[in-house]
Amino acid sequence: MFCFLVFPMALLAQDIPVTGKVTEQNGAPLPGVTVKLDGTTKAASTDANGVFAIQAAVGSKLTVSLIGMATQTVTVPAGGRINVSLKADSKDLSEVVVVGYGTQKKSVVTGAISSVKASDLENQPVVRIEQSLQGRTSGLTIAATSGQPGSSATVRLRGFTSFGNDKNNPLWVVDGVVIDNGGIGYLNQNDIESIEVLKDAASAAIYGARAASGVILVTTKKGKAGNISINYSGYYGTQAPAKKLDMLNASQYATVRNQAASAAGVALPYADPASYGVGTDWQSLIFNDAAPKQNHEVSISGGSDKATFYTSFGYTDIDGIVATPISKFNRANIRLNSTYKPAKWITIGENLGYSHAVTSGIGETNREYGGVLSSAINLDPIMPAVIDNPTAAASVYNPNNPLGFKDDNGNFYSIPAGGFQEMKNPLAYQKTRLGNYNWDHNIIGNAFVDIEPVKGLHVRSTLGTKLAFYGGDTFTPAFFLGNGPGGVNATATLSRNLNYLINYNFENTVSYNRVFDKHNITLLVGQGAYKDNNARGVTSTYGNIPATTFDEASFRYNALAASRTTSGSDGTDHRVNSLFSRLQYNYAEKYLFTALIRRDGSSRFGANHKFGYFPSASVGWVPTLEDFFPKNNVLTFLKLRGSYGVTGQDLIGDFSYVPTVGPGRNYTFGTTETIGIGYSPNAPANPDLKWEETRQTDIGFEATLLNNITLNFDWYKKKTIGILQNPPVPGYTGSGSFAANVADMENTGVELELGYRKKIGDFNIGINGNASFFKNKVTKLLPGVTFIEDNTASFQTLGAITRTTLGRAYNEFYGYQTLGIFQTQAEVDSYVGPNGTKLQPNAKPGDLKFANLNGDNAITVDDRTYLGNPAPKMSYGLTINVAYKNFDFTAFGSGVAGNTIFQGLRRLDIGTQANWQTKILDSWSPSNTGATLPRLVQGDPNGNYSKFNSVYLEKGDYFRLRTIQLGYTFPKSITEKLKMQKLRVYVLSENLFTITKYSGYDPELGVTSDAGGGAVFSVDRGAYPQARSFLFGLNVGF
Amino acid sequence: MIKMKTKIKYILALVIGAQLLNSCKKDLDVNFQERILVDNYYKTPADALAALISVYDRFGYQDGGLYDKVAIMDVAGDDQLAGGGSSTDINALQVISNYTLTPAIGPQTYLWNKGYAGIYRANILLSRIDAISMDATTKARYTAEAKTLRALFYFDLVRFFKNIPLLTAEVPVSEMYNVTQVPQEDVYAFIEKELVAAIPGLPNTVPAATEGGRLTKGAAQALLGKVYLWEKKYQLAADQFAIVNGPTPGQANPTYGYKLLPNFADLWKVPNKFNSESILEIVHTGASLGNWNDAGATEGNLLNIITGPRGYNPNAAAPDYYSGYSFLVFTKAFFDFIHFDPRNGATVANLDSLEKNYIIGNYDGNGPAGSGNKRPGYTPGYNNTGYFLGKFIARQSNKTTIGTNFDLNFSQDIYEIRLADTYLLEAESIMNATPGAVGTGSRAYQLLNAVRARVGLNPVAVTQDNIEKERRLELAGEGHRWLDLIRWGKAATVLASKGFVAGKNEIFPIPINELNNTKLLQSKEWGGTK
Are A850 and A817 in contact (CB under 8 A)? Predict the structure, then answer.
């Protein structure tokens, strides 16, 4: 690509060298301004001093433009020297937004689109793109799924569009290539030029079939004609946990257990609780208070009027704050975006990103099954971390079975007592995973050719692909970590997993733009073909190899055939074919109109409903441009807009429309142990399976007040018809679940974005805030079905904890309502049903009183009710930028309100052996009758802690200061000496504080499969908390 | 201007044409790959066999939560406790062991789904086999096997739940929520009819090497006998059992070859699969590479690993037990009951005694192995008594040699019906049908005492009490005790101390999922209206 740079600029006979300087009104030079020779594609851009050079004829016109500034046109004077002073365009009206298959001037956009620009994201130390959107725009509910470095976040646009997790993920389109939700992590933050969130159906419908949950368009940086610029930006710092849980120490633990035993009338487990002292603080053993985090990026960009290029190399390396040796992430990125114009009427180019990531994960990031976090929370603090007495070690470790792990001092790690189930000594467990990693290579990009045979007509063809290779190496040594399930691994195994994936899309569009008088028409027709989901993989495992560590492990140990296992996997191609067309029209940028229609065909539906049609229309009106509108300085711009559109979704199992038979129903006959392969139908087919349709109405306005304040407002109503799901079916059918259009759901909401920008003396102040509210309601279920309880979220011994009910929000917490704590036996005895039967005959003073909601004579499952909504009602964000002379300051925070969190940090089936948080000290006892928690008693006969009730629920509201940053840009006098164009240093802190009442680590809890799959936010089973970091950063430009 | 317009026209025509070519439906037809369409299946004898195997699959199905019918029945009875790691470990077993199960929590969903999935698969085969062109004898045999299995599933379901739907064909999607329960008499009538129809199609014997585990005439007749006995049709029951047990108790059945094994302990040795005493067994294999992603999908026997002792610490001459999860332990009372019976050694794995004799561990530091070091012989689990289920306990010698996941791939089979069981059931049937005909030397007497003689015990008289004692000793830990107590009407008395409530715990509650949105009603015993 560098070859383009040596192309000399075409010198035409009549052209003279033109040079000049572009400045702000206050005289400050403006770098990066595009200077374009009208009627040609010739262009240049200004350097850091605001200076540009271009060849042009005297008398020709130059257009000088920069985003955020009012564009100017100047005439080349004799002598060729021009100085231009650009005015700040506070209205941003000349700003351009990407709308899918094209761009549009922001002032004439009729849909609800939020954009985030590179400048908003600069120097934010986020690793994944979802995080860069969090709190930046309205309409999105975003929650990190884990603090494990490199983890994705859950993104919901305008509430819930459908049932399930995948179907609520927005569609990501990077430079025109559709990327699956999980794969979006390959992007390097610094390469992003802009992100556009297409919120209303009218905007998203251009992506028809897969746009129902919203579309997020990402555009990467391009080179600009002009000088080559080289930029470095990077940061380095350390991270620490923001919070430790207040677990009981050893003597408190012994006291509480004695209390539970004494309440049950059984022998006290500890004779002298005070003698145990503080005990082991398991959390401090796995937390790292100085986990390094760093990121570096170098980019080079530039070009001429014939070619442009942008290339970058980035590297990120982060250690996790929990069990650092097994929690690491690093990623290298290379990007190459270029365009080339071999002739005036043709442009060819490509946008290509490559990334390679290596991740080590703690495995269980939000699960209670013996990962490092759940073990640290649940293990008993009396147990020491290591056994430094050999005699004691011999009583634990069987010499005939020497699989125990030792620490660096040669002492065995302790093992949990019986009854602790999967819980393991986290230090020993960490050793069993040491060295294991997953990796991926992603090559994602497109190549395009754009032909402009006549002015305004573009014929464009784009071929985009995602090529991914991914896998992992896992070595599990032989170990003895305890007597619970999974505590013993008899032989060392090495496992390697390899996968590849090739997705592609091929799109051809023709667009024509014509302006006559005040009419501006753009017509687009296009066609697309898409293929994805064809991952192929194999896993091979060798057992019984003589290695004891990951480094020793190798497939060169030729394990016996019987100890080798392999498995393979095949994705099923998902294909979509589409036709689409769009008309954009405006009259004098005053009356705006857009209409489009897309037809999609999907391989997931049968002949009855293969194709779906997705139309939309939107209108806008800018009254401030009307002659009758009084000129004033208060309301300088107002645009009213409204839209209606339909989008769709085909995310359901492949071939659900035909009945298929499936394998794996095997049985063995005879002593030869030959397994017979059995087949039976998978599920009844549903030939009438059809597109899920989302219809959305949006009404909004955009306004500029007092020249400094921008205001965006949207109201929407979104209705999804025929939600696709495999509904739970009665077991007596024996057949398993089938795919169907099972439900309708409605979301209504409002969104507000507010911006303020003002220059006061040397101060430049910018404030941006946004807030979104939504309400979600299921409006229809299958005939005869009034609710769905599909174990989307469940917890050991409590069973399902959520339910989706007709007329209520999707997946609300569902359990027993409590009416306080019984204070006396008389209260228990007088709590009776209509026929006088005691409702809670086993209850004692101190137990919870459960509401008898159905009015019968017993407390049963039928008395359960709705206890809260896991999804936040409101999300908001606030950014404050202040610049003073060479200093700049940014504070950025976001939060949610109105959700309920299930606090399931404590493993229930370990009974009273698992450790508690200190709040248990306020459980009811005869001497503490005003307690907030019910009494603790071994066996829990009343179900205080084993029936799902509000004991487990907490408010999820929080506000988090996500980043706070202070920067200093060195003055010109210094940078010029250093031959730099820019030199800036900054210090930054992430997650400096979080305001919340939540008692767990972190109230931000996205949807994780670890937490029971499904689509439920706010279920905490010991989620990996997000780190607090302090970073030092540097930006250098040449 | 005209020129430009023409150009545009051409380009538009070209692009639109390309789209039409590109967007034809064919492009959206994705290869079905390994997916076989139901319409293309059920055509060949091989398809019929695969369909039949899918029915057997449910017969052998154990829950991914590591329990099965035998485990449930064992802990429901008086002789065993759930055990395990804690009071909520495999909660489905805990709540039946202490009778705190509710419609929402318990093992009933497993029992229900196991049966109905099996019935569904049998219905699929039975509705399609007629159209398959194949050898008539084979077709009749497959049909008979499917019918027998379907009857077996219904027999379990009606005993466990009483009020169940009777489905003899696939339920169309449109009718899915309209199914209702039928009187239990209808279910019993259906089971009898099915078994009677199936028996002629089944072979007398099958070659053990290749077909061991497949249904035979004897198995179906034994099952029919059990159905009759459960219905208190004693003479009919005795007649069926007589065919199975043969003309001379203690001697081989001349038609089927059934004969008690001379050595009781040999019944629990894996190489003795499909022995002469076995009438119907649930086959397991160590070759399926079952793993923790879906423990229920293994073809291995999960009963073995859950009955192994936790943290087993053997010394040189110790039994080859394999560390497991310490479930299904016997009570002290049962151990005292069986202590001096010859079957004690094969039935109870006495870890308590092994430890006290320093055969395992070195629990007080005074034993031979590394004197001074205290080391327990095993880690006591919840409810620990020290008496483990020797018949199924995990053993090194039974451990699979294939793959790396040993826990889930033990290959020991489980007897669904064995000859000692049918001997005792026939004796019981005769005693009830013709109470006068059970004296010394009578057939009933011979049957009962053949079982005793095999383990070297002296004959006893045929009385209800003696039959009860004999079944308790002979069949301990094999999942019979609870059903026996229900049949004898003694569950409420015997199990009262465990929390059994008369008029309620005789059946399991209809699983709550089955009531959600359907026309099914909860049984009266469980607070419902059915």
Answer: yes
Whole-angstrom distance between the N-terminal and C-terminal Cα of chain A? 20
Q: Quote the pTM value.
A: 0.84
Q: Which helix (H) or strand (E) element contains residue B123?
A: helix B108-128
B34: nearest CA partner in chain A:
A662
Question: What pairs with residue A295 in β-bridges?
Answer: A235, A316
Residues of B in contact with A257 (CB under 8 A): none
Q: Enumerate the β-bridge partners of residue A579.
A: A527, A599
Other Cβ atoms less than 10 A from the Cβ of B200: the count is 10
**Alpha-carbon gap, residue B424 to B449, rounded angstroms:** 9
- What is the complex's ipTM, to 2 decimals? 0.91
Number of CB atoms found within 10 A of residue B22's CB: 16
Contacts of A525 in chain B (CB under 8 A): 12, 15-16
User: What is the distance between the alpha carbons of residues A995 and A220, in angstroms, rounded to a whole number?
Assistant: 35
Q: Which DSSP category does A130 fall into?
A: H
Across the A/B interface, how many CB contacts are shorter than 8 Å? 317
Strands of the sheet with A61-65, listed across from one edge: A43-45, A34-37, A61-65, A72-75
Which residues in A781-873 belong to E strands, given as ranges?
787-788, 794-795, 799-800, 802-805, 812-816, 818-821, 848-850, 864-868
Work out the angle between the directed axes of helices B443-454 and B419-433 (0-180°, nearest 10): 150
- Tell me which DSSP letter residue B81 carries: -
Of A669, A679, A799, the CB nearest to B213: A669
Tens of pLDDT along A881-936? 999 989 999 999 999 999 999 999 998 888 888 999 999 999 999 899 999 999 99
Q: pLDDT digit string (tens) for B390-438?
A: 999 999 999 998 887 889 999 999 999 999 999 999 999 999 999 888 9
Which pair of tokens denotes residue B354? 């092994």
Contacts of A539 in chain B (CB under 8 A): none
* Integer Cα distance of A642 and A638 in angstroms: 14
Please, which contacts does B248-255 make with residues 24 or more away whose CB atoms are closer than 8 Å? B248/B446, B249/B423, B249/B443, B249/B446, B249/B447, B249/B450, B250/B446, B250/B450, B250/B453, B252/B276, B253/B218, B255/B204
- Say what the alpha-carbon torsion angle A185, A186, A191, A195 is, to the nearest 10 degrees: -40
DSSP string computed for A585-602: EEETTTEEEEEEEEEEEE
The number of C-alpha atoms within 13 Å of A829 and in the hemisphere containing its C-beta is 3
- What is d(CA A470, CA A647) in angstroms, rounded to the nearest whole number? 32
CA angle, A861 then B65 then A260, to 5°: 60
A949 is written with which tokens?
């009730």
Tokens standing for residue A612: 């779906």
* 8 Å CB contact of B208 and A578: no
> How close, in Å, is residue B144 to chain A by CA atoms?
17
CA distance A446 to B5: 31
User: CA A274, A277, A281, A285: dihedral to nearest 10 degrees?
Assistant: -150
For B346, other C-beta atoms within 10 Å of its C-beta total 18
- Dihedral angle computed from the Cα positions of residues A21, A25, A26 and A28, in that order, rounded to the nearest 10 degrees: -30
